[in-house]
């Protein structure tokens, strides 16, 4: 029995809601007048909702075994075949799929297509033992067969597919299988049947401009008599936009063009993702509807203005993006709307407004969500340093553009990557795209845009000041913990505001680690080839996540270091801001303040909110400067810190700043109380002096002035061999010790870079260390070191800028609070995957409590600006230039720390923040220690 129009529409809408494909045939809250395209899923809708098919793999694990496999999926992720990174091919590995299905008898008289959203890499498809058509070649593209004559409606049918992991066409292998990314095999995107009315609208390509002009190029089929195509524009809530418009078509017509103009429609941008839909109906001249469909789109105009910039709706924009592969450790390239939404949400949480689809087109639902949530997209034809031949590549360009043409989020088409373009295909994109989007060659200058990769700081400065629009499609390569956020502050000062800069894309969004079931689920990044992410494989946030969020926030402080180190005594309860949005006035944001109190050591980490309120959002246009006035109470200066947060119109956190009102000396005075009674005894031997205050015993070497031992009662505390200079020399010239009130002092003087050390143990057990050193010129590290056995450490609680470690060229993105983290030995991107990493440099430390098997070791800074270094982090194999230096010893008290390089650039090729510390002469610091059970 024929489905009603409403039933058919419901089936199609449910399919798209589940799978994100295809938007044709789906309306939002409207009943279409004619028969619609009906859809029948044969696989599951996505990687989260699968259907088992019969399966056999020909090589590798479980070769020859008759089994079942969930579809869609990559077979490696279900125990079949071999894991394989791009490079050497495995041509013998094929998957044989079988699936029985029963199409409805109500489809009689319809034209029925079998659609594969994608299969890796060559697909030979048969229906009821008969070939459905030519073998499809190319692993990331939609393809379909007309199977009307092959189906038995209302009966069981057999679908068979042989999917070859590698292609019989060597150029497909060059473009797809020899790339710098994991290779998989299988039917990894949905497979479904589409049943069209005999006379049908086959597809639609839309050009909807910011001035309201609308053009739809409608492909028709099966039109055997004169007819008419009618269209109606609507908002997504069903509200009509203008009246219906139509065009007559002759018998045998294969296309029609419809045009209209909407009056001041809400425009689509990444900041304002306003969407519309067009309802289209093919009807007979007598008015009988033959086929209805709907397409979603957005009104917007994209321009590359030569020698100027990239413009959307007449406004110059700056793209802030990441390169994204479709990837999940346990499902490979098979994905779902849930995972797509997760990635888009994380990108937007970093204040990104763009994503590059490296190195292949994504799932359709990913683009649907970019349209809905607001991300600019570079959609890419596969090709990494090698390209498709024209014969096999031209149909893939056609498939790419025809599927994706109506997504307003797509600004550019990429023809391959890094030399992987066939220039004969450049013109093909425009054959199917009435918007005539620019085509890019990522890695070089083409389409009016210089997209060159991995420029040094100096070459970036030259390009940003040049005459060509500059938009690197890969920069600041994020191998391990280098790149990504490290160096971005300097680069963005060049790229964020230069007239001809259109922004850029960091490599890459995630560490691509496969969960190897042949290794007990161990994560495999293929050495140093895949751990390039801002996020871990399961989307763990690494330190660069927060740095990028801060630097790319569209709401910025009006001057660098605003209230950074010294809160001004003249603070007038206003904060000066710059609006870096392209289209949004700050009055559309929400501003909220909090006054905070920080707990003392021993209490739970975090902070107490003393009072809070909202501030009126200031009227600040894009690109302008203004100020937000905070309605703080009269006693606001009694708080430890002031926090100001900004959220956007959707409720997403944009940025926040926390300024310490109380400084390190204030916290030191709060924690370290001088003894009022009691005393300290001293015992001297030929080698050392031991000071005793209650249960605390401290031993200092007479030959070096360094700490050689600490005991708390009967328990040794293994902090020793310090303070030793982090750089330079120290030769002891004088040593003395003497009583000082309730305490005892040990004084050591030196020639060389370290000039003096004074220890003072007070009767209450606080050990004060004062040291002075001299340094001029360039240094990686400024300060002093101690030894401590790493194996004794269990965790850290501290008041400082955290919770992530920092480098000299990645200081932004951390904030002051009382933080806590357990010990881990994570090698960022390579092993461990425990975040935040325990080891490394910790900024602006006021106090810290090291939890050890020997008890608690408390360190309190008496002055601002202390970097606490904890041990030397583990690093993955072959870090190349993504390295950072650490001083000797395990624990360091530093005034200057080192920067980190990235895969392609050592620190000398990066910006000012990546330079060594320029020492200025004499340095002095006081630090207190306490040792407790």
UniProtKB/TrEMBL annotation:
Q: Which residues form the Beta-galactosidase domain?
A: 575-636
- Which Gene3D superfamilies does its entry note? 2.70.98.10, Galactose-binding domain-like (2.60.120.260), Glycosidases (3.20.20.80), Immunoglobulins (2.60.40.10)
The EC number(s) this enzyme carries:
3.2.1.23
Q: Which InterPro entries match?
A: Bact_Beta-galactosidase, Beta-gal/glucu_dom_sf, Gal_mutarotase_sf_dom, Galactose-bd-like_sf, GH, GH-type_carb-bd, Glyco_hydro_2, Glyco_hydro_2_cat
Which reaction is this enzyme known to catalyze? Hydrolysis of terminal non-reducing beta-D-galactose residues in beta-D-galactosides
SUPFAM superfamilies, A to Z? (Trans)glycosidases, beta-Galactosidase/glucuronidase domain, Galactose mutarotase-like, Galactose-binding domain-like
Write the record's keywords in alphabetical order, separated by commas: Glycosidase, Hydrolase
PROSITE patterns reported for this sequence: TAT
Domain Glycoside hydrolase family 2 catalytic spans what residues?
303-422
Annotated Glycoside hydrolase family 2 immunoglobulin-like beta-sandwich domain ranges read 200-300
Which parts of the sequence belong to the Glycosyl hydrolases family 2 sugar binding domain?
65-197
**Family named by the database record:** Belongs to the glycosyl hydrolase 2 family.
Tell me where on the tree of life, at the top rank, the source sits. Bacteria
- Recorded protein name is beta-galactosidase
Query: One MF term from GO for this chain?
Result: hydrolase activity
